[in-house]
Design goal:
This protein is of the alpha+beta class.
Length: about 150
C-alpha cells in the first residue's frame, strides 16, 4: 500500500471530516445478519440528523427481517481510502409511525417520501456506538473516534 503524502490527522480533525461526510454523502453500505441466513449487505440512501443515521427500505426486505432478529449493524461510507465505519443498534419504525421530523428531513434530502408510496416501508434509525475513521495505513492507529456513543478527543 502506498502511503506517500498521507499526513496523520488528529482525532478532532478526523471527527470533523467524518461528520462532514455524514451530512453530505448520499449512500451508505448497511450490513445486517440473521442467525440462520448469515450476513446481508445493501447500499441505501441515508440521512444523518446530528445524532443518528436514518435509512429507509421496503417493509418486506431481508434487511428488515434481519433487524427484527438482530438489531446490531455496521455501516460503511463508500470510499476505501477515506474510510468511515459506524457500528450500532438499529431501531425500526413503520412508515406511518416514524417521527415526523426524521421523515420530513429524509424527504427533503432525497426528494422522495416513502410514506406517500403504495407499498409499506420501514425507516431504520441507527445510533452509533462506535465510529472508526482513517485514511491509509498511517491513520490505522487511533482510528476509533467514537466509543460507547461518545466522540473521543
Amino acid at each position: 500500500m502506498e502511503t506517500t503524502g498521507i499526513v496523520r490527522r488528529p482525532a478532532a480533525e478526523r471527527i470533523r471530516d467524518a461528520l462532514e461526510r455524514l451530512v453530505t454523502e448520499r449512500d451508505v453500505w448497511l450490513s445486517t445478519a440473521h442467525p440462520d441466513h448469515g450476513p446481508h449487505q445493501v447500499p441505501l440512501w441515508f440521512l444523518w440528523d446530528g445524532r443518528a443515521v436514518w435509512l429507509c427500505t421496503a417493509a418486506t426486505s431481508v434487511t428488515v427481517r434481519n433487524l427484527r432478529t438482530e438489531p446490531r449493524v455496521r455501516l460503511a461510507l463508500p470510499d476505501t481510502f477515506d474510510v468511515v465505519l459506524l457500528q450500532g443498534d438499529a431501531e425500526c419504525f413503520p412508515d406511518q409511525e416514524v417521527p415526523a421530523a426524521a421523515a420530513a428531513a429524509f424527504a427533503d434530502k432525497f426528494g422522495w417520501d416513502p410514506r406517500a408510496e403504495e407499498g409499506s416501508f420501514v425507516y431504520v434509525r441507527v445510533l452509533p456506538s462506535t465510529v472508526r475513521a482513517w485514511r491509509g495505513e498511517p491513520e490505522l492507529r487511533g482510528r476509533v473516534i467514537m466509543r460507547d456513543g461518545t466522540w473521543l478527543d
